[in-house]
Each structure stands twice: as C-alpha cells, then as structure tokens.
Amino acid sequence: MRKTIAFAILLLSLGVNAQNNSVEKSIFGIQTGFAGIWLNNESKLSNSIALRSEIGIEHDFTVGDHYDGAGLILQPVLTLEPRYYYNLEKRNTKGLITTKNSGNYISIKTSYHPDWFVVNLNDNITKTADLAIIPTWGIKRQIGNHFTYETAIGLGYRVVYLKDNYNNGNYQNVDGAGKRNQYTPHLHLRIGYTL
Predict the structure, then answer these.
(1) pLDDT tens per residue across span 8-22
(2) Distance of alpha carbon 68 from alpha carbon 112, whole angstroms
(3) What pTM did the predictor assign?
(4) Segments making up each domain of the chain, as ranges
C-alpha cells in the first residue's frame, strides 16, 4: 500500500512539473480593473508563448485631444497579444506557482477601439476609431484556484482614425489621410476570475 501511494505521488509530481514548465493549453477568464471590464482567452502557441485575445469595454486614459472635454468615457476594445512567458521553468524549479500562466511576460499588445459606440460621449462629438501597438512587460499571478491578478507597463504607438465631421470639423495636426499618430503609454492593474 505504501509503495502504491509513493508511486502515485511520484507520478503526480512529475505530471505537475511537466505541465508547469509550459503555458496552459487554453484559459478563459474575466478581468476588471480601475479602467474597465474584459473577457479574455489565452491559447498555447508553444511551451512559453500564449496568444491572448480579449474583448472589453474600457476607459482609455490616453485618448489624446480628440475627446477633449468628454469626461469619463467607456469604449469597446478588441485586443490580440502574443505573450512570451520567460520565467515559467525558473519559477517551477523554485517551487513557485505557475498554473494559469503565473509568470513574467513580454508581449506586443495590439488593441483596436472601433467607433461603434462610446458611453458618456456628447452627441456633438464624433466617435473615432484607433489602433495601438504597444510593447509591454508584465506579471501575472494566481490567487487561490480561480483568481488571478496582473499588472503591465509599456510604451507604444497609436493611429487615431478621424472623420471629416470630427468635433464639428475642428481638428488640428492631422495629415491628409484623416489620421493622427501619437505615442501612447500603457499601464494596467487587473484582478480576474478564470475557468
């Protein structure tokens, strides 16, 4: 009986170690933070790379002056973000939790804010769309069985697609294509629930 229990524990620990040296196959979750709410999925591409896809509604602190005077606004966002988790094996050898992709990562966060709707935006201000590509560094950790938290920071580039009747035709520093290019910082702190 003791040999059977010891053998089962050995197999279980080998299985846990093998699983924890790699990102998980697929993780679905919901997250919230001081700036919105998001539904997301992380799908395994390789042992250390996961593709995060996300849909949500968020306040964008760096919208620039194309929404001047709008106050607190919320807009939809679609995001694709390949993440390279670079320290899963090191965390595992130290006995630290790596489930739910708990580790440090670098990524290229690509976000699109469509012009479908903007919550709390005056009718006289035209909705705009933008696309941002932001190299990011972050950490993600598990709390209990289903909860996670993460924080990330980055600096990238955004293209805002302006319309002809934008803010009654009053806009400046726009190239002939109706776009405004700007550098944009990224900072987030989120807590989430994973399935």
Answers:
(1) 444 444 444 444 589
(2) 20
(3) 0.80
(4) 2-194
